[in-house]
Amino acid sequence: MFLRNCWYVAGWGHHFSENVLVARTMLGEPIVLYRKEDGGVAALEDRCCHRLAPLSKGRIEGDDLRCMYHGLKFAASGQCVEIPGQIVVPPHARVRAYPVVEQDCWVWVWMGEPDLADPALIPDARGHGHPEWWMQTGQLAYEANYQLINDNLLDLSHLSYVHENTLGRNSMSWGNSKPQVGRIERGLRIARWVVNNPAPKYLDQPKGMLTDMWASYDYMVPGVFLLATQSFPPGTAAACGMQAPSAEPLFRSTTSQAVTPITERQTIYYYSGCLPKSYATEESSRQQLAVFEKAFAEDNAMIEAQQRVIDHTPQPTMLGTRSDNALNQFRRLMAGLIEAERPQPSVEQHLSAAE
Questions:
Q1: CB contact at 8 A, 236 and 245
Q2: Tally of domains in the chain
Q3: CATH number of the domain that 11 lies in?
C-alpha cells in the first residue's frame, strides 16, 4: 500500500544530465525523466501509448521525447504531438505526465492527482547546497518494504546495537536515551539528549572526548528524515533540564534522507551528510560520509534479513515496546492518509450492501 498524493524523491539533481533519459520505477509505476531546454525536469510514464514500448529507449528532441520504436513524439505534458505517417493525432494519444519540482538538490515527483500537487508540501532539506556547508550525497537500494526503513529511522535506539562500532561509537548513549515525540503537520518531531556521547573521529577533537548531543529531527510523509545534531560539553543536558538547548554548540551536523518505494519489496534510500565549513574540512566531510555508508550498509543487512524472516513467517506479529512510540504514530499517520485516498462508496453502493 502506497500513499500517492505526496512528493517522492526520484534522485539527486546531478543524476539528471542534459540529453540523458533516466528510467525509474516509483510506487510500482515505470517513469522516464529528462531535462528540458530550460533546465527543468520532465517526468512521463515510461510506456508509449502505441505499442507499450519503453520511452526510456527513446530520444530527446528539444522539450519532447520521441519513442524510438515507431516514432511517436510526446510533449513534456504527455500529449502526443506527432505520429509518423498520419496527419491527425487523436487527443487521447497521450501518456501520463507527473508534476516535478527540483529543490534542495533533490528531484521530487508527485505520484498522485496532478491537481493536488502543491510544492509547499515538499519538506525543506537541511544544509543541501548551502554555500557555508560541505555536502556529500549517496543512495542505497533495499530488497525490503519501505515501511521497515521508516521504522528503522523512527527508532534511533538501534544505533547502540546495529551500529555499535560506527554511529553508535561503542556507547550505550543512544540505547539509553529517551526521545520526546510530538506531532507536526504531516509528520513527527523527535528530539533527545544523547548524554556522554563520544565525539566523532572524523572531526578534529581531543581523543576520548565526550559530549552531550541534542539530536532533533522531523520525520515527514512519506518517509523524509531531517536530522540536526548539536554537541555540547558534558553536563549541558542536565543543566537544560533535558530540554532543548539555547547555547552555541561545540559543533553541529545535519543529514537529510528520503525513502522512496520502488515496489512493495524494493526501496531506494537517498541520504546526505553536511558539515559547516567554519570548522570542518572537505576531507572531514568525506570521512563522515564514509562512516554513514558503512553504517547504512549495516542497516541494509539487518532490514533485508528482517524482511526475509517476515516473508517466511505466517501471520507475523511484532511485540511492542516503549521505543516503538514514534514508528507506531507514523504508521498510523500514513495509514490514515492512504485510507483517505480510497474511493468512497456511492449512495447506491451503500443501499445495495444494505439489501
A1: yes
A2: 2
A3: 2.102.10.10
